[in-house]
Amino acid sequence: MLTILYRGPLASCDYDCAYCPFAKRRDTPEQLRADRAALERFAAWVARQDFDVAILFTPWGEGLVRSWYRKALVELSWLPNVRRVAIQTNLSCRTGWLADASDRAALWVTYHPTQVPYDRFLAKLRSLTVRHSVGIVGDPAHLDDARRLRADLPPETYLWVNAEEGRLYTDAEAADWTAVDPLFHHSRFPHPSRGLPCRTGDSVVSVNGDGDVRRCHFVADPLGNLYDGSYAPQLRPRACPATACDCHIGYVHLEPLGLYEVFGDGVLERIPAAWPQVSRSGR
Questions:
Q1: Strand, helix or coil for residue 34
Q2: pLDDT at residue 16 above 90?
């Protein structure tokens, strides 16, 4: 099976989070048309393949407010060669369309407390008909929001916490976040990665809107192109060339971390295989 992290040219978002460089950015109509064409080309390529694929859409902006991402997620979820199709989203879109997706569709949902009323966000989560995880950035100002969300979510729903970029957590601060997410220690520090075996470039690749293939989003060296097939001979086991990896969609594929055993079939949507239960209070 080939796992594909797809990121087209879409860079617009309806939120203005202080920690995001794409906050409230708007794409031009021409840019949106280009993004739609790129996604439709990619989905058509997937449908023609005779091998299994798993897909995680990782747009810079918010994809599900665009009809073509909703359509792609539903249609790809029904293809016989698609094992899983998931997308990172702020869930600002409507959710009823998910009833048309198969059980191979999934969502990686991020809660942004400054951008959406809590009750509205929780109601949308409760309306979901597909597999999903929920997460939050570990900003100290959002700790009470995270605790509240943990208390209101079903125990079987995994609430993950991403360490805030550039923040060093004291042990006491880390303990607070670990009470919300028992797997927070994986995010707390960047993982030294140079020379370590990684699935990216072998069974996992990154693809952009033009079909250019790289081992992951964080290593710029090209492996070829998806559409002319030049990427395929380049796939092989290889070590990470970067000094460190600090993003879950990167380090989850580092073999020495053993996170495939932790997440099992939920690697793409960030759902642990054996979810460690936490108290309803998140404390």
A1: helix
A2: no
